[in-house]
Amino acid sequence: MTLWKLEVLRLIRTRKWVALTAVYVVFGLVGPLSARYIKEILARVGGSGGTVITVPDPIAPDGMAQFVSNAAQIGTLVVVIVAAGALAFDALPEMGVFLRTRVTPIRRILVPRLVVSFLASAAAFLVGAGIAWYETWALIGPLYPGPVLAGAALGVVFLGFVVALTAAVAQRMRTVLSTVMVSLVVLVTLPLLGLAPAISRWLPTSLATALADLPAGGTMDSYWPALSVTLAATACLTWMAFAWAARLKG
Description:
Layout: H1 3-13, H2 16-48, H3 60-87, H4 93-102, H5 107-139, H6 145-173, H7 176-193, H8 197-200, H9 210-213, H10 224-247
Helix pairs in contact: 1-5, 2-3, 2-5, 3-5, 3-6, 3-7, 5-6, 6-7, 6-10
């Protein structure tokens, strides 16, 4: 059995693909639904206390925005957890020694885990985005395909960065829990740096909201800096993961 097939089977048999898919599918269903009926929901809540809450009528981009607002947070968290479970293979010392003494070079261990984690995350995200797009069309109105597809592509690039970051952190932290915590700290810190307008357009985390921004009238011009930085950072983090993993011998 090849390491690629083993990794796919591990993802399937541990049901981690279910967690990934379920998160994005649920948000894909709930996001446009909440955008469509938020006015009615708030009217009921406000009416019960005698307070009138006025909100504008929903427009089509609101459906994708609601999906992204949840997927960019909870979805990313699940991606980090699933990727950490695959990439922190030294978390169990016996397993780490077993793999390192029987598989060389170390990239033969890491590459299948990294690629399968990324592809599973990207597929789940795209399924959720597709559901949100369809439901937005059905409940609120149509969206131009170009901005939606561009936003989804940038979201996939962001997930590649997330998985590469987790891979690099996993080779330093070793345990799954510490890998998850450190990766999340980095991902939370980046938007804080983005509070400065001059910096935000260069940060990988800005790509996570492109699927909400582009259908609402945003342009790709504002995402080229972040895209270039994200691709470079992903390549660098992947190299660091290989280099750090190779330092520990079985």
